[in-house]
Amino acid sequence: MIRQLFERKAYYEAETLAEAQALLDDGLDLDFVLGLFPDDVEWLEGMLTVSEELDAAYAVDSASYYFEASLKSKFLTGSREARPVVPVLVPAPAFSPVRTGLATVSVGAAAAAVGVLALGFITAGNAVPGDWNYTFKLANERFEYTLSRGDNRIDVQLRQAENRVMELKRQSERGDASPQQVERLQSELDNLTELARHQEFNDVQKGRVEVVAKVATTVFTDLNQKQPDIDVSAAAASVQDTLNTALGGSTVVSEPSPTATPSPTVEPSPSATASATPTPPPPTPKPTEPPTPSETPTDTPSPEPTGTATSAPEVETVTPSATSTP
């Protein structure tokens, strides 16, 4: 089809000449052939006459074998002769100095831009908000999340949540954290929760979620102490929601208190060093038998009570007086 578009077509005169020549070759007379083309006799007669004369000359004296061989050898010899190569000098185009300078500056600017982009993507791994290459880090994370599929997307989202927690931790240590960074961490946790609702986490991923939740809670507590004007209650709720959804249970993470209030120390009350030993009751005194008449009454000593720490009161024994012998 394309070849037909660029193929040259025969014009009217060429077609007429070819048709008339074919009639002559068939043995028709020249006058008869010209009578068939009355409108083209002026130019067609001369061409047909020349054609007939060439045919007659070729029929009378044809080329010999030796002439054809010599002519062929001349052609071959001429093709083998080495001819000197004439260099073609192309004049250099004349450029304007201003145009040359602009082209140089453009090339230099393009090379510098490519170098900055490459350096930004290479060094953006440890960037935090406020660094010049932090935008490259976010762009790289978005590109990586877009290309991830299935279980790999969970690992990518976990890594991004870990990055947000570590960035907020570094900012909290320096004292320059911002509410925007807390909101960015909350957004990453919400995305992780959404993934946990549709896909089941394996044991390694669950462990990483627990670590993220613990570190985030610690960072929120430190942030409340250093920058109490930043509200982290919504982010703390997102941490708890992510933990419960990923682990499939009700795991409670202690929420950070607004301000750190020292709790009073309760000192133990002094206790008695020694407890009173119960004192056994004093022995019951035995009744004294009356003396015989021949015996001389003697005073019976009272028994001494025994005790430990506490002495029992002495019991006074009454002895009957001696009676005279009848």
Task: Describe the structure using short key phrases.
57% helix, mainly alpha, disordered C terminus, 326 residues, 11 helices
Itemize the secondary structure elements and their pairings.
Elements: H1 2-6, H2 12-25, H3 30-36, H4 41-60, H5 65-80, H6 97-122, H7 134-147, H8 151-174, H9 179-198, H10 203-226, H11 233-247
Helix pairs in contact: 2-4, 8-9, 8-10, 9-11, 10-11
What report would you give on this structure?
This protein is mostly helical and 326 residues long. Among the domains are: 11-74, no CATH class; 148-247, no CATH class. Helix content is 57%, strand content 0%. It has eleven helices and no strands. Helix 2 crosses helix 4, helix 8 (151-174) runs antiparallel to helix 9 and helix 10 (203-226) runs antiparallel to helix 11. The longest helix is centred in the middle third of the chain and has 26 residues, at 97-122. The chain is elongated and about 120 Å long. Residues 257-278 and 290-326 have low confidence and may be disordered.
